[in-house]
Sequence to fold (64 residues):
Amino acid sequence: MTHEQLSAEMFYHASLSPFKKLVADGLISEEDYLTIDTILRAKYSPIFVEVIINLSLDIKENQR
Fold:
């Protein structure tokens, strides 16, 4: 992985993180979240997305 790829990966995940919280709090819909995810994927072209996107959006569930 190049430095540029690593940076893009980190920017993608950092950009998406606040939206996960908004979904968990019910402030945006999962449809909105998926739209935002699509935009960020196009912008950053992350490599490790498939593993992350399959996680539940319920933050409380992931903390158990």
Remarks:
- DSSP finds four helices and no strands in the chain.
